[in-house]
Design a protein that fits this description.
seven-stranded parallel beta sheet
C-alpha cells in the first residue's frame, strides 16, 4: 500500500539538515505540504526549495512564544497543521561530574521542552479537526543510557514519557502520538568519527551498518499516515537491531 499524505500539512522542526531534511523530503514526496522549520533560516529555505510544496520558517524552538507563533503562522499559511514532527535536537556531551548546568538546560530545553510546547500549540487545531499525527524523535540512548550523555539520554527518555501521556490524552479525538528511537545514523557527527570508533560501533549492530536518514524518514512517513491509524503511544525503534 502506498503512503498518501495528499492534502495534509506537516511541520518538521530541525528540518534544515540531516534527519530533519530527509523527513521533510519524504513527507513532501508522499504529497504533504511541508513547513520546514530551523534555527538557520537559510537551511530551511534551501530544503523547502529543494523538495517543493514547502516553505522555510525560522524559529528558536526553546522560546515558547516563538513556537506558538510558528504554529499560528503555519496554520495561516497552509490552512492547517495536521502532522507535527518534533525533530529538533542538540547534544552537549560530557561526563556527569563535569557537566555544566547550562549544558544540561540547553539540551533539555531544545530536545524536550520544545516538543511539549509545539505539541501543545499544534494539538488544539488537530483536536478540532479530529485528525492529527505527532511524531517525536527519541533515541535508543533514551532507552539504554550512554556514558557522557546524561542530559541527552534524559531528554530522549522524557520524550518517550511525553509521547505516551499525549497519546492517552488525545486518542479520543483521533490525534495519534508516537515516537521513533533511531540508533546510530549516518550524519555529520558520525562522519567525523575515526575509523576505529566507527568499526567498533558497527560491530555492535547486528545489521553491521549505520542507518541512513532515509530509514528514519520512512518510519516517520508511515506513522504520519492512515496506514498507522490504529497505532498510538508506541516507540518504534529503528536501529538495525542494536537495542535488542
Amino acid at each position: 500500500m502506498k503512503i498518501d499524505l495528499t492534502g495534509k500539512v506537516a511541520l518538521v522542526t530541525g528540518g534544515g539538515r540531516g534527519i530533519g531534511k530527509a523527513i521533510a523530503g519524504a513527507l513532501a514526496a508522499c504529497g504533504a505540504r511541508v513547513a520546514v522549520v530551523d534555527i538557520n533560516k537559510a537551511n530551511a529555505d534551501a530544503v523547502a526549495s529543494e523538495i517543493g510544496s514547502a516553505r522555510g520558517f525560522l524559529c528558536d524552538v526553546t522560546v515558547g512564544a516563538d513556537v506558538t507563533a510558528l504554529v499560528e503562522a503555519v496554520e495561516q499559511e497552509f490552512g492547517s497543521c495536521d502532522i507535527l514532527v518534533n525533530n529538533a535536537g542538540i547534544t552537549r556531551d560530557n561526563l556527569m561530574l563535569r557537566m555544566k548546568d547550562e549544558d544540561w538546560d540547553a539540551v533539555i530545553s531544545t530536545n524536550l521542552r520544545s516538543a511539549f510546547m509545539a505539541t501543545r500549540a499544534a494539538s488544539r487545531g488537530m483536536m478540532k479537526r479530529r485528525w492529527g499525527r505527532i511524531v517525536n524523535m527519541a533515541s535508543v540512548v533514551g532507552m539504554m543510557g550512554n556514558k557522557g550523555q546524561v542530559n541527552y539520554a534524559a531528554s530522549k527518555a522524557g520524550l518517550i514519557g511525553l509521547t505516551k501521556s499525549v497519546a492517552k490524552e488525545l486518542a479520543s479525538r483521533n490525534v495519534l502520538c508516537n515516537a521513533i528511537a533511531p540508533g546510530f545514523i549516518e550524519t555529520e557527527m558520525t562522519a567525523a568519527m575515526n575509523p576505529e570508533v566507527r568499526a567498533a560501533l558497527q560491530g555492535m549492530i547486528p545489521m553491521a551498518r549505520l542507518g541512513a536518514p532515509a530509514d528514519i524518514a520512512s518510519a516517520v512517513a508511515f506513522l504520519s499516515s492512515d496506514l498507522a491509524s490504529y497505532i498510538t503511544g508506541q516507540v518504534l525503534v529503528v536501529d538495525g537491531g542494536l537495542l535488542m
